[in-house]
């Protein structure tokens, strides 16, 4: 059912009321003896004066005529105080790019058991978060039959031993685990038959 608050009265404020309140706030803002009641119900973002926002007026630093007019004298791009020429900017960009590549390579490389460094694909980190496992445990607690879908090309590689160990605990021993072999059409029938025999034990 929809929330009943959707159909109730909404708090709407007009521009005139907001302006009056702003003027009233200016007179009492520095008064330590005046307290604003129900401040949470007021749109404090709208109450701040919009005219105080800093605006970068480009026409004060450089006129429109001197940039785009007939007497425009801007011939080469301004690169800022740090770079005197295009070559200096190019050199700076190359050094920054090499620094970034070094950082990326050090973060993506990880030490394998034999001490060598190997690259780890991001796809292998999927499904390892604690939040995901918490949700999975909630599903296991609330269900009586758990279906585990295995790939017929590699059933042992797609099998979750952690989930099976969880179902063998004393509290969850009454739950049933069903294996489903998927993509059986991609392997010979004798392979499927052997896997069915082995997984049925």
TrEMBL record:
Species in which this protein is naturally found:
Lotharella globosa
* Record-given protein name: Nucleolar GTP-binding protein 2
State the protein's purpose.
GTPase that associates with pre-60S ribosomal subunits in the nucleolus and is required for their nuclear export and maturation.
* Record keywords, A-Z: GTP-binding, Nucleotide-binding, Nucleus
Q: Where in the cell is it found?
A: Nucleus, Nucleolus
List GO terms (cellular component aspect).
nucleolus
Residues forming the Nucleolar GTP-binding protein 2 N-terminal domain are: 1-99
This protein's superkingdom?
Eukaryota
Q: Which family, according to the similarity comment?
A: Belongs to the TRAFAC class YlqF/YawG GTPase family. NOG2 subfamily.
Q: Name one Pfam family in it.
A: NGP1NT
Please provide, alphabetically and separated by semicolons, the GO molecular function terms listed in this UniProt record: GTP binding
Q: Which SUPFAM superfamilies is this protein grouped with?
A: P-loop containing nucleoside triphosphate hydrolases
Under the heading InterPro entries, the entry gives: NOG2_N_dom, P-loop_NTPase, TRAFAC_YlqF/YawG_RiboMat
| Region ranges (Disordered) | 94-114
């Amino acid at each position: 059912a929809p929330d009943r608050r959707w159909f109730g009265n909404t708090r709407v404020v007009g521009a005139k009321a907001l302006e009056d309140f702003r003027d009233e706030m200016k007179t009492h803002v520095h008064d330590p003896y005046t307290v604003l009641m129900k401040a949470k119900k007021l749109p404090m973002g709208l109450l701040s004066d919009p005219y105080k926002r800093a605006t970068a007026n480009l026409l004060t630093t450089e006129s429109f005529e001197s940039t785009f007019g007939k007497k425009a004298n801007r011939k080469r791009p301004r690169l800022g105080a740090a770079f005197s020429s295009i070559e200096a900017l190019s050199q700076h960009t190359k050094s920054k790019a090499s620094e970034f590549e070094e950082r990326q390579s050090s973060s993506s490389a990880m030490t394998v058991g034999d001490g060598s460094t190997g690259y780890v694909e991001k796809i292998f980190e999927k499904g390892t978060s604690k939040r995901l496992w918490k949700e999975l445990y909630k599903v296991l607690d609330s269900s009586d039959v758990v279906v585990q879908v295995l790939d017929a090309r590699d059933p042992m590689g797609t099998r979750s031993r952690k989930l099976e160990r969880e179902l063998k605990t004393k509290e969850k021993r009454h739950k049933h685990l069903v294996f489903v072999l998927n993509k059986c059409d991609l392997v010979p029938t004798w392979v499927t038959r052997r896997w069915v025999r082995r997984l049925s034990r």
